[in-house]
Structures are given as structure tokens and as C-alpha cells.
Design a protein that fits this description.
The protein is of the alpha/beta class. It contains 10 helices and 9 strands. It has a 9-stranded mixed β-sheet, with helices on both faces. Helix 3 crosses helix 5. It is globular and about 55 Å long.
Length: about 290
Amino acid sequence: MSPAPSSLSAEAAVRAATQGVEADLSIELPGREPVGARVYGQRSKGDVVPLVLHFHGGTFVCGNLDNGRNVARLLAGAGAVVVSVAYPLAPESPFPEPIEVGYAALEWLYKQRTKLGGKGAQVYLAGEEAGGNLAAAVALIARDRAHPPIAGQILLSPMLDPCAGTASLRKVTNDATECRWASGWEKYLSCPSNATHPYAVPSGSLRLAALAPALVLVGADDAMHDEAMAFANRLRGAGIEVTSSVLPSAANWPKALYDTENTACVACEATVQRHFREFFSATTPPPAASNHPS
């Protein structure tokens, strides 16, 4: 078991990344309250590793850094340095506050990329369930604001359909008219008009071109299965490079991804980390050719 994270300054957290110690920190954001975060992974001196900004699950209304632990450790195990963010939750902080905080954290991470990931480190977004929505939304914002460059987005069972009417969701909820996902959407969107905003509902965006490549993973009996796969297909139709996979051994997704008491995702840990490694490899450009004569 990993030691309990300690509370550190940003600079100390950078040092912790070189030691492989999980460390909590407070990220100062311009014009906003600081946001809590936790650093995972290890980078040896001279190495260049993927740098990931991660958003935990929790249907927009619950969850904390501990709930991000399962996925963050899987990403770190695949060779990345991960910064998992404790974004503000609805209903106290509905759309668009969580994604604006997420984007500000991304800008902070990009400025720290050389210290955390090494010179030339690629920056990624990742999230599970509600966090997958935020990762996809922040990818849209980064494209629209033309900064920072994103190497890829990793979406695990992302929440993308506020109508909560897909067959996979109805199967899990037994056609219940009320479910935690629908309730979470209602509190996050706060008013019906927000359901038409592409940053609130990335799958509804009419413009998906020029986004970062995506890795989309779902479980076979996953409530988010249908909406995630539909989004993957829409990204492909927009010319985005997408890798998507249904993991038969991924039991109790998406809850297992952020449940601190559940180790069900361990059954597919090796497969998930393989997907992460392959995605990092596929989205990392080859070293620049030397200009020196051979």
C-alpha cells in the first residue's frame, strides 16, 4: 500500500514526482480559489514521460482526490506523471465552473510540463465517468482557445448523454425514471439551456474537427457503453484518430473506476495499462532527426 499523501507546495510536488511519491498540493489559479490536486508517478532524471491532467468520477456531484486514485495509479503505472484535480462539484458549482477550473489547471500544468514530465513532455487529458465529460470538454476549450496543445484525451466510461436514455443505461438502471446519473446531470447543468452547450455536453458539439486523438474505454456491461461508443464514432467521422475498446473483464464500470472500496478494476488492470501505453506511444512524435551528417 502506498503511503498517505502529504501536503506539499507545487515545487515540492515536482520533486516528489522524481521520487515516485504521491503528493497533495494546492494549485494557484489566476482569479480563482486554489484547487487541490494530487501528483502520481515517477520520472527519472533525463527521462521524458507523458504528463496527464486527470478528472475523477462521481456524477458531477460527489467524489474527491481519493476517488481518482484507481485511474490515476493505472495511468502512472503505464509510465505517466499524473496530476489529479479536485474540481468543484455541483450543485454548489454547476456548469461551467468545473470545466473553467479544469482548463485553468491545464494551463498551470502546461507551464510545469518540463519540470514534471521532462523537456518536450506531451500533455494529456483523462477522466472517468463525469470526469470523462470534463476531460472531453477541456479538450474542446483548448482547441477553441488555441492553447495549450494537447497530445490526447483518455476517456473511460465518459458521461456524455444528459437525456440518460441509452439502452446500456436503461439496462443498468432497470428503466428507472430516476437514477444517480440523471440526477447528477440535472444538478450540473442547473438549467435546461445548458444542455445545448458543447462544453457541457461534448457529444452534442456540432464541431469536433481538430481535436486531440482519443482513447475511449468502456466495460461490456457499462451504463456509459452506448454514449461513449457513439462519441467515439462521431470523433472518427470528424477525422479524429480514435482508439476504442470494450473490456469484457471490466466489471462494475464506471463505479469501480472511482470507488475507493472497490478493487473490481484490478481484474483488467494489465489490459487497461496496455491500452494506455499503446496510446501514449502512438501519440508521441518520433525524435527529431539529427541535422549532423552521418
